[in-house]
Amino acid sequence: MEPEHKEAIVDDLKAFKESKEYYGKVGKAWKRGYLLYGPPGTGKSTMIAAMANYLDYDVYDLELTAVKNNTELRKLFIETTGKSIIVIEDIDCSILTGKRTKAKKASADKEADDEKPKLPGEPEKDEATKVTLSGLLNFIDGLWSSCGGERIIIFTTNYKEKLDPALIRRGRMDKHIEMSYCRFGGFKVLAKNYLDVVVEHEMFGEIHQLLEETDMSPADVAENLMPMSNKKKRDPTECFLGLIEALKKAKEDATATKAKEEEEVEAKIAKEKEEGEVSKAKEKDKGKCEAVGDMKQVDK
C-alpha cells in the first residue's frame, strides 16, 4: 500500500481506539465500519489481519450464508466480545445481493405462486430461514448493535457497485478503503520487506514506469520477489528482471484484451447498422407493394 494511504488508516484506527469518551458524549455506540473493496489479490484479508494486530483485537469471521435467519445473526452478534473485529468477506457473493432491487419482482412472483394450486406434499417456502437485508442492517447499526462496545465491522468485496447503497452508506460503513493495484510506492515497501532493498536500484526507473502503465496486484508483485530456490538470499537484480518481464507480459495481455473488446463492439455496431438498413429496405418494399395494390384497386 502507498505509505501515505497506510498512514491515514493507522491514524483513523488510533483515533477510534482513543474515542470512548467522545462516542459516549455524542450518544453513539462505540463501533466503526470499514468497507474494503478492490480486485482480488490487493490485500483485503491481509489488511484485516494488520488492523487486528495493530489494535490487539480479536477477529470474528462471519460466514453469512451459513447463518439460518435474523435471530441467529443477532445471537451471534451478542456473543461477540468488546475489542473485536467482525468480518464478513466477499459480501457481494452473499444471498443479500440485489435483495432490495428485486423486492417488487419477488412480491409479484409470490402472488403468482399463491394463485397456483398447491400439489400434495409440496413444502411451503420458509422465509424465516433466511438472513434478510433488513436483518443485516439492524446487525450493523440497529438496537442490538449498541450492546457492548469497541467493535469494528468490516465488509470486503471485489465489486462495490453490486452492493445495496443502504448497506454501505456513511454511518454503517464509515470509511471506504480502496485496495487497488500495486504502484511504485507500494512496490518499494515490498522490495524492502522481501529483498532488504532500502536504497534506489538501477531498475527502479523502468519498474516505476511499468507499474504506472500496468495493473498488477500486490500479491502478483510479491510473488515475483519471493525466493525460488534454497538460497538464503535471492539476488535483487534477478528478481527485478523477472518482475519487469511479468509486467511487460501483463501489459501486452491487457492491450490485446482491450483490442479484442473494441473489435467486438465495432462488429456489434456494424451488425446493428446492417440489420437497421435491411429493416428499412423491407419497409420501403412493403410501401411500394401497398402503393401498387392501391393503384390496381382504383383501375378496377
From TrEMBL:
At the top level, the lineage of the source is: Eukaryota
Supply the alphabetized keyword list: ATP-binding, Nucleotide-binding
* InterPro entries given in the database record: AAA+_ATPase, At3g28540-like_C, ATPase_AAA_core, ATPase_AAA_CS, Mitochondrial_chaperone_BCS1, P-loop_NTPase
Pfam families of this UniProt entry? AAA, AAA_lid_At3g28540
The record's region (Disordered) falls at 106-127, 252-300
Is Phosphoprotein one of the keywords UniProt gives this record? no
| Residues annotated as domain AAA+ ATPase | 30-183
Gene Ontology MF, one: ATP hydrolysis activity
Entry's PANTHER family? Answer: BCS1 AAA-TYPE ATPASE
Q: Which family does it belong to?
A: Belongs to the AAA ATPase family. BCS1 subfamily.
The protein's name? AAA+ ATPase domain-containing protein
